[in-house]
Each structure stands twice: as structure tokens, then as C-alpha cells.
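Q: My labmate handed me this sequence with no annotations at all. I'd like to see what the chain might look like in three dimensions before we decide whether it's worth expressing. Could you predict it?
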Amino acid sequence: MTAGIHVSTAGGIHKAPLMLREMGLSAGQIFTSNQRKWMAGDLSGESVEKFREASSGLTMISHASYLINLASANPEVVAKSRRALLEELLRCKSLGIEYLVMHPGAHQNAGVDRGIEMISSALNELLPQVEAGPIVLLENTAGAGTVIGSRFEELAAIRACSDVSDITGYCIDTAHAHGAGYRVDDPGFAPLLDSILGRNNIRAFHLNDSMAECGSRRDRHEHYGAGTIGLPGLRSLFHSPFFTGVPGIAETPGTDFERASDIRKLQVFDEGNF
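A: Here is what I predict for the chain of 274 residues:
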């Protein structure tokens, strides 16, 4: 994989790619707006220009708002979610960001099939409105409550039911997979992903250890080697030939420097650790 981190935009959105360069990383993920608010402030032309210049040659990913739920049972939330996703797609296009990661949503007792139908329908409607926009990556989940995407087959179904498979793909979060009951440290994990989702459709990873036990359905990120997945399993996945060149983004707790320290632990290839 290509090493990267989720990086802060403090001091201006253009500071994020500059920090990545300072750390010697070629990939990074940001929030283009406050991830816990519906409304996003406008980006100035100067900010956009500075970001594009600073990020040239880097692989940049945006993470959509946590509030977006395209499968909600509340029509008002669905409307807000669609609007927020469209605005995020437009911001990514403006900034030249290649990938947009989003959580699928929660069906809120309407059933998984109905939730998948609603998500696919929204993607069909919204993505074609932003020509040459980012590729949308559906992220797997830990499986709490009625959240969709804890099984890889559910992610595959969303994409298969849509008419925009050419501009959608997947982002795999290791802590979420672990919480959902997958053994990330198992040598068969990468082949499993390939068999269900297709290796070429997996465009990014969120590489996180987990505070929670496997199958707990809990999402608790931890530093590499301090959690229940373990450093060897994460390092093995990072070096898997299935995903050569795919951005591997550390979303571990703390600062940019702590996340950079984590991702460097995976870059060290030591066959004795496998």
C-alpha cells in the first residue's frame, strides 16, 4: 500500500497536503468541512487554489460528514443527507480530490434490503450531477444497531444495485471489519476481500488497530500494536500484493505526528513478524 494518514486542516485546508509532504507521505485524508454539522462554509477561491497547488501529485481523500444517512426512515434526514453529499461532491471536485469516503447509513428497522435500495437510488441521482467528480468509496462498518455495511456482501449489493458502479468503490476500515467479526490478521483476509468486492474496486484502506474485541460490533480505533488486531496482522495486510499502490490511511487517535508514527510501523517489512 501507499502510506498516508488522516491529517488536520487546522490553519487552512491547504495546510493538510503541506503537512503530508513534510512527513514524507504521498497520501492523505481530510474533512473538507465540519464532519458533525450539516452546513458547510464556502471555500474561497484562494483556499481552493492553494490546496490544489499543495496537493499536486498526492493522493487525496475526503471523508463525508458522519451525519449523512441516505437510508434514514426520516424523510427530512434523507433530504439533508442528499444535499450534504451533493455539496461534498462539489467541494471535492473544486479541490481536485480524487476519492470521497462515506458510511452507507442505517436502515432504522426498515430492513437491510430497503436501506440498500435507498442508498443506491441516492447515488444514482446525485453522482451524475457532478461531472468529473470524485469516486465515492463505500466504507464498511462495525455493525452497531441497524447500520448497513458490516458484511462485505452488503457493500457489494449497494454498488451492484446502482447504475454508477464505474464511479463507486470501497474503503475498508480494519477496526470496523474486526468489530464486525472478520479476522483482519488472518492470511485469508485479503483473498476474502478480493473474492467479495474485487481487489480493483478497493481504492483505499483505513488502517486502525482496535480497542474492541473481534465480533464486538464496536468501533474503537487504537494505535498499532496496542489493540486486539495487532501489529503483525496490520503490517501483513499493508504489504499484501493484492493491494499494491492502494492508499493505506492511519486514522488512529491523537495528532498527525502520532498517526504518522503509526503508519511508519507498517512500512517496515520484517518477515520475522509474519
